[in-house]
């Protein structure tokens, strides 16, 4: 029997992306088909989303005379096999100078509470049958932007519909002033410690954690970490109280799009059996970033950094380690954007070390693919990392992760210690998080291993043989959905 799932997300690859959420939201639904789960995805109709469709491909399936005060429509569309519902509300999602959540200076849009409360309220309406002929058996909401869906479902027309909330990053919580509560359209009873109230204000993510039937995080280790004060961001008590409603399921990647044997963004394709094509990609990376080949035939290892440039991602640790990389014969290629101070420090390092450090600011999807195919190792010194997809892309492409032992990084990388190297199962290098000295030591380990080509190639091949798709993860999600739907039917 087919199960109807409504997935609610604020971004979706390839339409709009700021991070891994978009990749997950786009890659999970196709994998669920094999398990009898039919997914409809609800997301905002940002201008860049609407531009992807001709008007003839959009069909209005529901309308609002006043959604949080202004007219809005739900538009149905299909893209690459995905069944979409787009919330078209110009007052909330029309063109703005900046990204989906913040302006060009990085300041959050002042009406974010209204924008994503509207998305969540509409999700509850769709779950209850607002789109003729379709009603959700289960709702899956992603992160704080969709977390209020659980509150609107509980206090709406479909209070028995199960809701799953996935926390992609607990650090982003959607906290707002108490003054917005009267405008949310929720009953007075929702203003409570076991409702949406959070330290005297409104907590969108907190409300979702409180009301959802099940909570998932994107790796088992992160599920454990966020129930501790060190990683719980003030919500560890609530998460501990939810007990076995909290599940850790490792993210997968779209292994059709991320396949070095067929990737159109590469200078040359390759596979675990035939790694020769990596050389052409290495040369392309050197050319793009202005890196010298070095004194030896291939030079030292090229370390990649593909990341948001933020404190969470440990960028300050990388800035501090650049001299260490260069002094030991390594090179560094950086692709990313974020904190202006970090951008400036990396650009300054590139100016000081021409030919050894290269920086491209912003985000370039084809270039990210090329870097994974042409660099030797990828640096991921995150202070915390719910799952991470970058290391999975690296493993798939033979770019060995040098990463902090935290969250999903710890769950997906096998450290190259003596036992793992002897057994032939090592896939990367792990180090303690939040330590500049530990990162430098890990970089030194990588450079030493790279100087032993047979060992390095063996690690590459071992990583590339892994299964990083959604096979196991989608099966776990489908089983969770069905258990909630069955429980609802028998209640």
From TrEMBL:
Q: Which reaction does it catalyse?
A: [(1->4)-alpha-D-glucosyl](n) + ADP-alpha-D-glucose = [(1->4)-alpha-D-glucosyl](n+1) + ADP + H(+)
Protein's recorded name? Glycogen synthase
| Gene symbol of the encoding locus | glgA
Q: Which domain of life is it from?
A: Bacteria
| Listed NCBIfam families | glgA, PRK00654.1-2
Q: Does the record carry Transferase as a key word? A: yes
Described function: Synthesizes alpha-1,4-glucan chains using ADP-glucose.
Q: Does the keyword Glycosyltransferase apply?
A: yes
Q: GO CC annotation: what is one? A: cytosol
- PANTHER family assigned to the protein according to its UniProt record, in alphabetical order: ALPHA AMYLASE DOMAIN-CONTAINING PROTEIN (PTHR45825:SF11), GRANULE-BOUND STARCH SYNTHASE 1, CHLOROPLASTIC/AMYLOPLASTIC (PTHR45825)
From what organism does this protein derive? Answer: Rhizorhabdus dicambivorans
All residue ranges annotated as the Starch synthase catalytic domain in the record: 5-240
The pathway is: Glycan biosynthesis; glycogen biosynthesis
Which Pfam families does the record match to this protein? Glyco_transf_5, Glycos_transf_1
Task: Give the transmembrane ranges.
Answer: none
| Protein family membership | Belongs to the glycosyltransferase 1 family. Bacterial/plant glycogen synthase subfamily.
Task: Indicate which residues the UniProt annotation says bind ADP-alpha-D-glucose.
Answer: 17
The GO terms this record gives for MF are: alpha-1,4-glucan glucosyltransferase (ADP-glucose donor) activity; alpha-1,4-glucan glucosyltransferase (UDP-glucose donor) activity
Enzyme type, top EC level: transferase
Report the EC code(s) recorded for this entry.
Answer: 2.4.1.21
> Single Gene Ontology BP term?
glycogen biosynthetic process
Residue ranges annotated for the Glycosyl transferase family domain, each copy included: 295-450
Q: Which UniProt keywords apply?
A: Glycogen biosynthesis, Glycosyltransferase, Transferase
């Amino acid at each position: 029997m087919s199960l109807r799932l409504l997935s609610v997300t604020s971004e979706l690859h390839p339409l709009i992306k700021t991070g891994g959420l978009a990749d997950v939201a786009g890659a999970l639904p196709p994998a669920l088909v094999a398990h009898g789960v039919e997914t409809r995805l609800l997301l905002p109709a940002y201008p860049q989303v609407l531009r992807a469709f001709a008007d003839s491909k959009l069909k209005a399936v529901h309308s609002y005379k006043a959604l949080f005060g202004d007219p809005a429509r739900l538009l149905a569309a299909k893209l690459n096999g995905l069944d979409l519902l787009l919330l078209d509300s110009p007052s909330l999602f029309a063109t703005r100078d900046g990204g989906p959540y913040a302006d060009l200076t990085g300041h959050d849009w002042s009406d974010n509470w209204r924008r994503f409360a509207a998305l969540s309220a509409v999700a509850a309406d769709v779950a209850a049958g607002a789109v003729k002929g379709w009603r959700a058996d289960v709702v899956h909401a992603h992160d704080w932007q969709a977390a209020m869906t659980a509150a609107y479902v509980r206090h709406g027309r479909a209070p028995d519909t199960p809701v799953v909330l996935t926390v992609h990053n607990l650090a982003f919580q959607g906290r707002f002033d108490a003054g917005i509560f009267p405008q949310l359209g929720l009953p007075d009873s929702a203003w409570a410690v076991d409702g949406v109230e959070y330290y005297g204000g409104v907590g969108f993510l907190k409300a979702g954690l409180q009301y959802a039937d099940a909570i998932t995080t994107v790796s088992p280790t992160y599920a454990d970490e966020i129930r501790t004060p060190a990683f719980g961001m003030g919500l560890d008590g609530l998460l501990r109280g939810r007990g076995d409603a909290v599940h850790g399921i490792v993210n997968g990647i779209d292994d059709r799009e991320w396949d070095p044997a067929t990737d159109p963004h590469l200078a040359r394709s390759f596979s675990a059996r035939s790694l020769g094509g990596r050389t052409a990609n290495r040369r392309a990376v050197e050319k793009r970033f202005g890196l010298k080949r070095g004194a030896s035939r291939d030079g030292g290892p090229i370390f990649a950094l593909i990341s948001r440039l933020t404190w969470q991602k440990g960028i300050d640790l990388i800035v501090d380690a650049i001299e260490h990389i260069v002094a030991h014969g390594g090179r560094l290629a950086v692709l990313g954007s974020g904190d202006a101070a970090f951008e400036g420090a990396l650009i300054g390092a590139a100016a000081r070390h021409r030919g050894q450090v290269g920086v491209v600011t912003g985000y370039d999807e084809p270039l990210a693919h090329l870097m994974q195919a042409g660099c030797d190792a990828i640096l991921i010194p995150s202070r915390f990392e719910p799952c991470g997809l970058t290391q999975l892309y690296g493993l798939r492409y033979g770019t060995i992760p040098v990463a902090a032992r935290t969250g999903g990084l710890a769950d997906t990388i096998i450290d190259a210690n003596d036992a793992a190297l002897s057994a032939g199962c090592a896939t990367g290098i792990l180090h303690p998080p939040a330590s500049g000295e530990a990162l430098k030591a890990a970089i030194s380990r990588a450079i030493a291993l790279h100087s032993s080509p047979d060992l390095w190639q063996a690690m590459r091949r071992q990583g590339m043989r892994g299964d990083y798709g959604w096979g196991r993860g989608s099966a776990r999600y489908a089983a969770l959905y069905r258990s909630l739907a069955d429980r609802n039917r028998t209640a």
